[in-house]
Specification:
Blueprint lengths: L1 H6 L4 H19 L4 H18 L1 H27 L4 H15 L8 H22 L8 H9 L1 E2 L2 E2 L8 H6 L4 H29 L8 H21 L4 H24 L6 H17 L5 H13 L5 H12 L2 E3 L5 E3 L22 H6 L17 H20 L28
Helix pairs in contact: 2-3, 3-11, 4-5, 6-11, 9-10, 9-11, 12-14
Length: about 425
């Protein structure tokens, strides 16, 4: 770790200058030799760096969403050119170029933080060994060596020997308890950040290997940080814990305000937007109007969450407009009333009624006979019904099996008197 940190020694001068400036501010409030002054200086360094990295974080979010959306196409390319690695790579690069996706953009914030992280590690290592570094001169070096956070010096590590810890005016128990707690908090915050991303901000309608990779990282990263954390000084643990908490809060804000389409977070966001819009009768926020505008522009390409929002908005009596606003709508989506607008189907007649009814192609009901024709028509109807019932009892010519012929042809010979009857 010391060798890697020495590679970034060129940035130790600006890092030490920033820490000294914040130390002057907090030293005037809490005292120059206190752990609060030096600890808050490191926290302020993290906040300043993360504010500068916000544009890279936005690119990271866009890149992760584009990579997630491209997973089905990437999988199809891999299956199509599984025997030609060169053609597979060419098609992948072509797909990235057409969609404007950079696979390395998701790693930009971590890569950009790495020089500052190792530079701070290098500065704290020099403080622990009693060497001047950057803008930290002899008086500041003595002040930093006296600073303790909950009894643990800034430059102490979990793996330090009792003699080295005693040289920093601290006990080994205090150092290990404080560093263990900070390592646990650092790993837990990393796990929760990744778990929050997987459960809420992932499109559940797309099942790709990318989701499995993210799920593996959710368990691997905390273990890596826990193993590496025992070799970090307390000041570096303060730095890394602060940046993890910042990342967690930043991601919570992005999930709540700009969720991934098709995710659980989008369903929750649109539910809140629907409740607010129907309660106030308008969409006040500019960001919310932009969301409604995008939903209207999508048309039939909306996902399930977006269709649910538009349908619920229509049931509430509102219609979304192309400019992102909503207006009162007179045409509501209502269920049709029972018996209204439905075609009356004729009742199904029994077989005897169909046979006794008139053979007409219109299917209309038979006319009732006149009063004077009752006596003449009644015998004919009875005769017709009798004839049809007799016909129905006769077996059909081609229906059923043929009965087997019994006996022999011609006259049969009489049985012998001695034969059994």
């Amino acid at each position: 770790m010391d060798t890697i940190a020495s590679l970034f020694s060129f940035i130790t001068t600006p890092v030490s200058w920033i820490i000294v400036q914040f130390h002057k501010l907090y030293g005037a409030i809490f005292g120059p030799d206190t752990g609060w002054a030096w600890g808050l200086s490191i926290v302020s360094l993290v906040v300043l760096i993360r504010i500068c990295l916000i544009p890279l974080f936005v690119k990271q979010i866009k890149s992760m969403r584009n990579m997630q959306a491209l997973q089905p196409k990437m999988k199809a390319i891999q299956e199509r050119y599984k025997n030609d690695r060169q053609r597979q790579s060419e098609e992948m690069m072509k797909l990235y170029k057409e969609t404007g996706t950079n696979p390395l953009s998701s790693c930009l914030p971590i890569l950009a933080q790495s020089p500052f992280f190792f530079a701070l590690y290098y500065v704290l290592s020099k403080i622990a060994s009693g060497n001047v570094v950057g803008y930290i001169d002899e008086p500041l070096l003595a002040s930093a060596r006296q600073a303790h956070i909950f009894g643990a010096p800034l430059a102490a590590k979990f793996t330090d020997s009792p003699e080295k810890v005693a040289a920093l005016d601290a006990s080994l128990t205090d150092v290990r308890v404080v560093t263990a707690i900070m390592i646990i908090l650092m790993s837990a915050s990393q796990f929760y950040t990744q778990r929050q991303l997987m459960q809420k901000n992932v499109d559940l309608s797309v099942k790709t290997p990318y989701m499995q990779q993210q799920k593996m990282l959710m368990y691997i990263f905390p273990v890596i940080f826990a193993v590496m954390g025992i070799n970090f000084p307390v000041g570096v643990l303060v730095y890394w814990l602060t940046t993890n908490v910042w990342t967690m809060g930043q991601q919570m804000y992005v999930i709540n305000q700009n969720p991934t389409p098709g995710s659980k977070a989008q369903d929750q966001y649109l539910t809140r937007l629907l409740k607010s819009a129907t309660h106030r009768g308008e969409v006040r926020s500019r960001r919310q109007r932009k969301v409604v505008q995008v939903l209207v522009a999508k048309g039939p390409e909306r996902n399930d969450n977006e269709r649910k929002f538009v349908t619920s908005l229509a049931k509430a009596g509102y219609a979304a407009q192309a400019d992102g606003t909503i207006v009162k709508s007179d045409t509501l989506e209502t269920e049709p009333e029972a018996g209204a607008g439905r075609r009356q189907q004729p009742k199904r007649q029994t077989k005897s009624k169909r046979q006794s009814g008139p053979q007409s192609g219109t299917g209309s009901k038979p006319e009732e006979p006149a009063a004077g024709d009752n006596d003449e028509s009644k015998p004919s109807l009875e005769k017709k019904a009798t004839t049809q019932s007799a016909k129905s009892k006769q077996p059909r010519a081609n229906s059923g099996r043929q009965q087997p012929k019994s006996g022999r042809k011609g006259p049969q010979r009489p049985k012998h008197p001695s034969s059994k009857k």
